[in-house]
Amino acid sequence: xxxxSLMVPNFIPAQEYFDPQHGETCIxxxxxLAARLVGKxxxxxxxxxxxxxxSGADLFGVKTDAAFMRIKKGxxxxxxxxxxxxxxxxxxxxxxxxxxxxxxxxxxxxxxACPSYPFDLMxxxxxxxxxxxxxxxxxxxxxxxxxxxxxENTVKVGFKAVESCAFPLYEVASGFYNLTNTTLKPRSxxxxxxxxxxxxxxxxxxxxxxxxxVEKEYKKLLEKAQPE
Amino acid sequence: MESKAKVSNKTLRCIAVxxxxxxxxxxxxxxxxxxxxxxxxxxxxxxxxxxxxxxAVVRQDDGFFDANTDRCSGCGVCHRECWFGVIGxxxxx
Lengths: 228, 93
Fold this sequence. Notes:
The structure holds 2 protein chains of 2 kinds.
Chain A lengths: L29 H13 L6 E4 L4 E3 L2 E3 L2 E7 L2 E8 L6 H5 L3 H8 L3 E5 L4 H13 L4 E6 L3 H4 L6 H10 L6 E4 L2 E4 L9 H6 L9 H22 L3
Chain B lengths: L8 H4 L20 E5 L9 H5 L5 E3 L5 E3 L9 H5 L5 E5 L2
Antiparallel strand pairs in B: 1-4, 2-3
C-alpha cells in the first residue's frame, strides 16, 4: 500500500532543520513555514546560514524591514528575503521592488516564491544553490498578526496572493524569465485584499486602482517572459 | 496568562531568527486547540505534514500522522488544508 500511496513526506527529507523553540514565532507564522521548507531544501548547507532582521536594513541599496537569510556557497552567497510586508501600505504590498533590483544588479539567479507552493519553493532554493554566482530568492510570507486574518488561513492567503497575480511566481536565470505559476483561473485582486484585516479601511476606488497596478505590473512581467 | 491579551510591538514584528530570544518558551505552551486526526478517513497523503508552520506534525510508524505537543501552536493550518476534512480542532480545557 505504501508503495502506491501519494505520500508527500516521501519526497522531502524527514529531518527538521528549523527549530522554532530557539526563537519566537507567532501562531500560524508564515516566516516559520518558509524557513522550515528552506531548511529542508538546503539540508546540510543551512549550517552556514546567517539570519538577521533589523529595521532599515540595506539590501541592494533598497531599505527594507524584512528578515533575510544569507547562505555562503563558495565565493558567492545566496540571499533569501522573508517578506511579510512590515510597511503595511497597499502599494508596497502589490509592487515588489527587490526582485527587479536584484535582476538589475546582475545576480545570476533571482526567484520569487511562496510557502503555499512548497515544492516550487524547495526546487528554487536547490536551483539557487546550484547556480553559478550569487542568487536571490524573495519569499512572500503571510503574517497572521500583522495582516490580521485568522491564523488557519496562512496558506490560503498565499494562494490568493499568487493566483490574483499580486505576487507572481517567476525565476530569472541569467536574464531569462520563466513564469512558474500557471494559474488557469486567476482570482480577483479584491479577493486577496479583502481577505486581510489590515486593508479593512481601503475604499473601493483604492482597490480598483490597486487592481489596475497589479495588471500593469503583471503585463510588464509577461512581456519580459516572452521568448525572443 | 496576562501576556496573552497584549500583542507587543516585538511580537508583531515576530521573527524566528533571533537567537536566545525565548529559550524557555515552547510554541506548545500557548495552545487553545489541537488537531485530531480521524484515522478512518485519513488517506495518509501528508499535506498536513508539509504545511505545518512549526514542523509539529510527525509521521508515526503506521503511516498516520499526529501532533507533537511541544511544537504545535494550534494555528489550524492543517485543519484548513486537509483535502478530505479529516483533521478536527479539539479545544483545550
